[in-house]
Amino acid sequence: MAAMTGIHAAGGVVWRPTPDGVEVCLVHRPRYRDWTLPKGKLEADEHPLSAAVREVAEESDNRAVPQVRLPTVHYRSEGRPKRVDYWSMRAVATGGFQPDTEVDDVCWLSPDDAIGRVSYPHDAEVLAAFAALPRVTGTMALVRHAHAGKRVTWSGPDTGRPLDAQGWARAHELATLVALLRPARLLSATARRCVQTLDPSAALLDLPIEVCGDLDEPQPGQQPDECALAAAARLTALARSGETVAACSQGKVIPGALERLTGREDDFTTPKGGGWLLAFAGDHLLALDRW
Predict the structure, then answer these.
(1) What's the burial of 211, exposed, middle or buried (CB within 10 Å: 0-12/13-18/19+)?
(2) Given 3-state DSSP classes, what are the helix, strand and coil percentages for the chain, each rounded to the nearest 5?
(3) DSSP SS3 for 170
(4) pLDDT tens-digit map of 188-220
(5) Which of 52, 164, 246, 264 has CB 3.0 to 4.6 Å from 183, enough for a Cys bridge?
(6) Distance separating alpha carbons of residues 37 and 40, to the nearest angstrom
(7) Which domains does the chain have, with CATH numbers?
(8) Do 69 and 280 meet the contact criterion of CB atoms below 8 Å apart?
(9) What is the pTM of this model?
């Protein structure tokens, strides 16, 4: 007998500012007669973050920008194990909610009132984690360039090594994730493969790519710590500006930069075409989520 597969869903705590702080969005589902956070199942091969943004839009009619990963909850639904990934999301637009058979009402409440309104303890736990967060002032995607073949097979200068077919495919996948953040700027290390990794994002968002030497890996005779410090300083300055940014750097830079931003030693190794969602409060790195 085949093992029963689980259900993977994603959603968000969608918030908007008020004169007294923030309020969050809950949805009412007539089928279950409950108040809950907007969420839904992943489609085939869909990234959980993409699913979270899509489901929030479908259930609550909010266009929202993800910021911080919140606790993942696990429970059983219709006899099957279910996992739901959540992100804090800033509401940026709405199309005008229309009730239907899946969701017939939407309400906006203070986090404390929402904790008292939701029908399930796991929703209350996610809301409590959101309420404990400092206010996010900056969001950033930090990615490593996608696959660019092998250095030993490239006869030209290494900075000119281009993406291969695998790398271009991944660059297009990354563009859909980068677009979720609605960045105002795209920054890249000077290597050709880094710039090309952001090319699909630039085309999708109609943004130029700014080349930034502070994101480059060490040159001969240069200390890795020097590059890590320069990258961390540049990322901090970008976060302080309050603009949402997507940046592409290199494998010998990202781990050291993240160590300095977090103030701790950890495994920040980033595979080619991988990346991180960073959230800042001022110039303090509040949270990071591995893509």
Answers:
(1) middle
(2) 35, 35, 35
(3) helix
(4) 999 999 999 999 999 999 999 999 999 999 988
(5) 246
(6) 10
(7) 7-131 (3.90.79.10), 138-290 (3.40.50.1240)
(8) no
(9) 0.93
